[in-house]
Amino acid sequence: MPAIIHTPVSAEKKQHWAARTLPGLLYFGYALLVILSVNNGFFWDSILLASRYGQWYFDSNFSTLFVPENIAGYPPLFGMLLAFLWKIFGKNLLVSHLLILPFALGIVRQILQLCRKFLPENIASWAALLLLADPTLLAQCTQVAPDVLLVFFYLFSLNRILEKRRLLLIFSLIFLGLLSPRGTIAAFALFLTDTCLFIFEKKENRTLKHFAGLFMTYVPAGLLVIIWQILHFRHFGWIGYNPDSEWGTLAQFAGLKGMLRNAVLITWRLVDFGRLFIGFGLLLTLLYYVRKRLQFPPEILRLFTLVSIPFFLFSLVFLPYTNPIGHRYYLVVFLLLALPVYYLLTHVPNRFFRRITYGFMLLGLLTGHFWIYPDSVAKGWDATLAHKPYFELRREAIAFLDVKNIPLETVGSDYPNLAPGSVTDLNNDTRHFQGKNLENNTFVLYSNIFNGFTDKELEELRTQWNVVKSWKKGQVKMILYKRPE
User: Fold this and answer.
1) Is 355 in the same domain as 438?
2) In a domain, 12, yes or no
3) Is 183:153 a contact under the CB 8 Å cutoff?
4) What is the mean pLDDT of each successive set of 10 residues along the chain, which is 485 residues long?
5) Which domain holds residue 75?
């Protein structure tokens, strides 16, 4: 890790090799990550938010703003963008993943810009490497996931706030607010962040006129979101979620016990998949500051403001409801938390301590792709690269069923393996697996990717059913069971 910062950022300071080489490697690494994923089918929530939404607009030739009610609830921006690209370049997985490529590279650029605002050029790239090594961000970039766009527009907006470039911020907020419900919440988090940074300004800049200009930046996005919600309510009679759908129960009030459970889940998400090492790094650094009686560097309050506001706002929204809290919901928080930790670390005078702690955190994040939980514990497979072998194993399992003349419709399985190939792989295969029902199924295709199997069902499959065929690669396994004669 480079030398300690004792002086302000200077454009004339001689750049370290990392300032010239590491950014290029980060761009190359993220581009390669996306390109190596172009044959992966739609996975987890992208099955709905990308494939089903996109195909609706593609097949209807954009003749209507609203998707069918059974899949409605999200703004149309991402699905329309995907369908538009399909119209131009063809409807296939390659085009779908290449939509993600510019936004993945854009995240690298925005992270580098953000780090350079608080750190000298020669070490900002090391901070960017730590942020960009987050397992959940890497995993999302391998999927056709709207959360990649959410992260990009959030970071782009945050950089424009820090640069006071209001015109660009207006357009970025519009895209962010219309991307998804969490995008709307993220836009409001940016408003709160902007307001707090305004409070930190010098007294002569904290005038009513300046705040009015700040507030007006958010009005266009806010009005468009309100108009969309009104149109959605007039068309469907509800907003947010369909109370009559199978997902309606997930948006109910959780109660005190459920809220406590959600608080535990949020804490788990923060430390899961290697992020525990970021927490340890922060703790060790703070202990060093206390022990050596070091003064905290000047920008630390602003940096913790950037991360604390989205964390508390997202938590206030998620805590009261029974909806499962995914890792990707806190992606922005994961990234922004690593920056103040690194910033504090660079002001520690002990070079050995800095290098050991940085290496500890970076290697810890990389181990996150290998964190294994028992089959009975639900895992956020879309939040780690550990899920990558799933697509190959699924193709092998379907090929085996075809050879054995076992119709897919007679095989029980679970989400995200219930949609037909025409949805997950954009091919012409309209066959699909049954939803699992061990009382009626003759065959069951199980994978540890699936979180919907109960402990009782797993035990019954292991002890009472016969294994016809099993596949395993990396941490992913897939087993075809048959009911005993």
Assistant:
1) no
2) no
3) yes
4) 43 56 95 97 94 96 91 91 97 97 98 96 93 97 96 98 94 95 96 94 79 93 95 88 65 84 94 96 96 92 95 94 89 96 95 95 95 89 95 96 94 95 95 93 95 93 95 96 90
5) 17-370
